[in-house]
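Subject: for your reference before the review

Hello V.,

The reviewers asked for a structural picture of the protein, and I figured it would be easier to keep everything in one thread rather than splitting it across files. Below is the amino acid sequence we used in the manuscript, unchanged from the supplementary table.
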Amino acid sequence: MPTNFDRQLRTRDNWRAKKAFDDVAEKYQLMWSQLEPWQLEEREEFTSLLDGTTVLDVGCGPGRDLKLFNSWGLNAIGIDISKRMLKLAPHGLLVKADMRSLPFADECIHGLWACQCVTHIPKSELNVVLNEFFRMLKPKGVVFISVNFGYGERYEEIGDLGVKSTRSFYTLPELKRTLQRFTIIKSEEKRWGKRHYVICFARKENVE
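And here is what came back from the structure prediction:
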């Protein structure tokens, strides 16, 4: 059970993340409005693995991927902790929420898209997030997760945005270990310029 100190840390981290992304929402939208060809391929691969059309874009920000998924005929829902980010998102079902406690029923989602969002969650809270993902996914549901490659966690600047937030870093074996409740479909490291990522596609099987 979370202690009072744990709750205080979560409140602090929530406030930091919310304030950071509220402050730079418009700048973030401009910086990340376009997809590189390899990024588009990731999203196409994710949709090809789905056994249905209901998708949750976790940490959807201003809705770049949300808009894409909906244009492909999916029923995409966006959640983010930043109210200002959600105001920039395209029209659709948008929910302001913390990924550690999501307001959705059990086994209601076919796919969870978590692109560079859990990297802003302290490592001590990652299992809380993954348990929420597992709970909401239908049997055979698919989750995509991408995080920054590295070790440990730091409170530091987010890219070139000029604001700071908690950032957690993972190696590929470490990320795969956290997904032990799921069946790994594909996992790899990716580099794009100076950026270094770890990604996993995983599936919730019928029986744990």
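For the response letter, the relevant points are probably these. The domain at 4-203 is CATH 3.40.50.150 (Rossmann fold). Strands lie at 54-58, 75-80, 94-96, 109-115, 137-149, 153-157, 164-170, 183-192, 195-203.

Happy to draft the paragraph if you're swamped.

O.
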